[in-house]
Each structure stands twice: as C-alpha cells, then as structure tokens.
Design brief:
Radius of gyration: 25 Å
Structural class: alpha+beta
Shape: globular
Distance between the termini: 18 Å
Number of strands: 26
Strand content: 25-35%
Helix content: 10-25%
Length: 622
Amino acid sequence: MQRRDFLKAGGALGLGGALASPVPARAQADSAGAAKSGSTLQADVVVAGGGMSGVCAALAAARAGASVVLIQDRPVLGGNSSSEVRMHICGANTHGIPDSRETGSLEEMRLDNQVRNPQRSAAMWDLILWEKTFYQPGLTLLLNTTLDGCRLDNGRIVSVQCYDMRREEHLTIEGLQFVDCTGDGTLGVLAGNPFRVGCEARGEFDESLAPEQPEPYTLGSTLLFQARDFGRPMKFIPPAWAYRYATDEELGRGHESYEYGYWWLEWGGMLDTIKDDNRIREELLKILLGVWDHIKNRGDHGADSWALDWFGFIPARRESRRLEGAYWLRQNDLTSGRVFEDEVAYGGWPIDHHQREGFYRKNDDFFYQQRLDKLYSIPLRSLYSAKVPNLFFAGRQVSASHVAFCSTRVMATCAVMGQGAGVAAALAAGKDSLPCEFGPQDIEAVKQTLLRQDAYLLGTPNRDPEDFARTAKISATTEQSGFEARKVTDGVARTVGNDSHQWRSQSLEPGKAALTLEFGKAQVLGELHLTFDTDLTRALTLTHEDSYDKSMLAGAQPETVRDYRIQCRVDRKWSTVAEVSGNWQRKCVHRFKDLRCDAVRLEVTATNGAPEARVFEVRCYS
C-alpha cells in the first residue's frame, strides 16, 4: 500500500455519533474482517487484549484500512473500566491541565456514553464498547477467548493460539502485525520479548523519584464497590472471615462518601500480581467487607440507609510486567514535556506512585504524586519491540521505566497509546514492513492519519497533503475576535494555551452562523470532516459520584453543534447535500459520491446549549 493510499484509508471509516455510517449486517462485518479457514483466522493486524488500549488499537487499525482480529479473554470489553471492575477512566485532564482531554476513538465512545447512559450503568458502557467493535467493518471480535501460545518464524510472530471457552474451540490466528494490549505483556512473554517487573535503580535512567537500588515491588491491586441509598434502614451482616475495624483510628482512612468505593482498598504490591491474583482477591475481599462493616456497624457514620449494591471479584491490577521496546520512556521525558519526532500519543496524569504495602501503609506516605504542569508525548519507539520485529504493544505494559509508568498507566493514556499503535500496525501491514524500518515519511504518515482520526499530538499539526481545505479561501457570516474563520484550517483542532484554534459565530440567528470554504476551482468532494467543541477541560467519567468533578455533565455537551446543514456550490448555485439534527459528537464525517463543487458551506442552526456556533476544524478530501 502506497503512502497516498494509506492516508486515504485513514479517514475512510471515520467517527461520528449521529452521523455514523449505517450499522452493517454482521455478515458484512465478517466479510470485511478476518478471512476464515476452519479453525484458522487470518488478518493484517491481530490485537490481543480488549481493555481500553486494545479497543482503541483495533478500531484505529480497522479504520486505517487493515483487517483486524481483536482477542479478549472476558465476556465484555473495557478491562478495568468494564462492568466487572468499574474503574473510572482517568487521563491527562484530570489534574488541572486545561483543554487536555483525550480525543480520537476514546472521545467518541465517552460522548456516546454521556448521552446514552445518563444513569451511569456499567452494563451500558459494556454495550457501547461491544457495538463499536462488533459492528466496525474490517474488525472481527473474539470474546471469551484466551491467548495461550504463539508461533514464531525467523524471530517474527506468524500466528497465535487461542481457546474459545464458550464455544469449546481451539483457534489459530495468523497475522502480519501483532499488538499486545493484554496489560500483563502476555503475548510479548510468549514471544520471548524481554520484560521488567518492579522499580529500576535511580542511576539507570537518572530519575530522582526512583529508589537508590532496584526493587522487585509493584503497585498493588484494588477491589471496588458501589453502594446505594435505599431510603430506609438497611442492615449489613459481615461474613465471619471479614476483618474488623472497630474505630476510625484503627481503619486509618477517610470514608466520607459511599456511592463509589475507595482506591485505597489496595494490596499486593509485594507479591506477584499475576501469579498471586487469587490470594490478592481474598485479602482485598476481607478488607473491603471489613471497611463496609466499620461504616455500617462501628459507629454513627450516617450510613443507616446505605447498602452495598455491587462489589468486584476481579482485582483492578495496576502493574505487572513492562515490555522492553526500542526506547524506555523515563522521568525526565515526562517532567520536561518532551515532544518526540515519532510521537503517537500523549499523557499528563501525575507521576502517581503507590507504596507496596497498600492499605497497610498507615502513615502519610502511602502514595506520592508529582504533578505535571505540561503534557508530554509518547514515542512510537516505546510501543514496539526491539527484539520481536512485528510486535507492537500499548497500555500499561509499554516500554517505560517504573517512574514513567506511574503516569502512563491510567486508562485514557493507555487508550491513546492503543490508537497510536493500531494506526502504526496498519501502516506496517499495508507496506509489508516492520516498525524498525519506518523512515521519516512513514512516521509522518502515521501521525497524519492519527490526526485525521481526531487524535491529538503535541508537536504535529495537520499538514495532510490530501486535505484540500488547507488551501481554501475561508470566510464566515460573523466571527468573534480571537475566534476567526481562518482558524478552522490552522492545523490544530483544540485550544492550546491562549490560542483558541476555533471559529465562533457571534450568534445563532439566521444568516449569522455560516462558514464558507471556496476552493478556487471545481473539486471532487468525497469526504467532509467537521470537528466541533466538546470542552476538553471537562471530565467525562462513568463510575464516580458527581462530586468528583463538578464540571462533569451528563448528556450532550452544551458547546457542541447540534443541528446544521451542508451546502455545495455548483455553477454558482448552492444546494443542500446533507442536513443533520441531534448531533452530540465532536468529530463528524460526511461522505459523498462524485460530488463536484467549487465551494462548501456549513450553516449551524442550533447547538446543545452554547449561544454561538463553535468549530475547531474542517477538512476536505477527494
């Protein structure tokens, strides 16, 4: 696949809520996905692990034109965010860096969740992730399927072996490129990729936050719970084996809110968080039920009408193995806000280290955080192996020192790493090449395709040569100072610092909220990409009480354009070619067939609450 063809493929299966393409029949999805041959599947890209990094990797690769198989060993997707664990998705914007929320496919799914799931049902989040992947053309989803082997030829992975527990079927999945998103580096270990566990010594990467000597310990695991106020007295009878904490001093933790459990129900960092998972779960159950017994039965805590509604049986694992890649991301890369030439993702969560004793570390240094005052980029070299040439990885097991991992480990950062790895794997498969062979043009193709998929990169603007909106003459019926029409093609699709990178109309009155792009000559318009404002400073979390972040809003985000029409000019005459009502998505893609025009106009007629139209970016493709 040539670079030009790859860039075209990158936007061919775009994003977009109310504007998404019609859901295909399952037979269509299968025919576009992996080729089937008995108990063998073949695909361009094989993704192992269906957490947020795996979901985003699989979607990105499929939307970049690759055939994809996504393997997940659970009945649901989402990993620690799923209904089985229910951890909220944190990322770069959670600790005060403005306008830093992750976009791309994660934003698409979060916005769907805000509108379709105001009740904050964990099962509804499962459904959103399932339908995004199950109905994505080019993607074959395998749930309840355990990866338990791989075959190499001349050092490259050629296939993986799996077992479908529900169907009692052994599968072989052959591929060109493989992406390990298991969280534990399972595929990497099976393929013989070197890995690390624990903390490096301070001197290895010159990290002030690292211990003087290397340590084998990791961050522990957590069991979460949810409680509900039933409006009447509710008893709690603890099992005999649960721990007892008679006083607040003995418990040693604050417990002011009851709706959503406590992250400090953590333990196991001194053990092997993989091999000792059963032991860790047993200890955490004793702690969790002991904490709830304390709240309900050991003093007046105002919880008489509260009862446990759910609690987990799968410990939320923070850390296990980290796979060795072509580059180890390290502390100074994060604190300096380094921008890599091969950037494919970014982070901004604090360097958030938890002590190995977890819950039993009663003093004030149970954890420490070093806040970051700027975002940092994540290089592609940290997302592919230096030993197994066709192995990518994304998620918490990427090539990062333990100190750097303490920031990169959170799910929103894992998700954007997944999107970066997925696009790169699709390019490698399309070119029949390896990531270690990528030259500057290949890296640029990966970055431009990520931007086209609504990802954000710190140092890379839109310079896609296929986007002819970049050379258009742009005007608007009205515009606000600092929010001029020309900014919709300035290459950046979010506010950065004091630059809005956005057009805003003065009002929504008829005739005052229209944006026009004139091309100077007739063009064949095949795709029109629109990027709207969804306020990237606001938190969008699922399983946390609203007091966690007062900015969080259920439903469509008020800044977002809701109703609009698209008009094209042919022979000096304008005609409407698309009309939309009820949009809530940030990125919307319209596709046309053989539409020739010399100008295109966007007329906004309503938003979800803002008094003016807000548009970050417009792209045009043949």
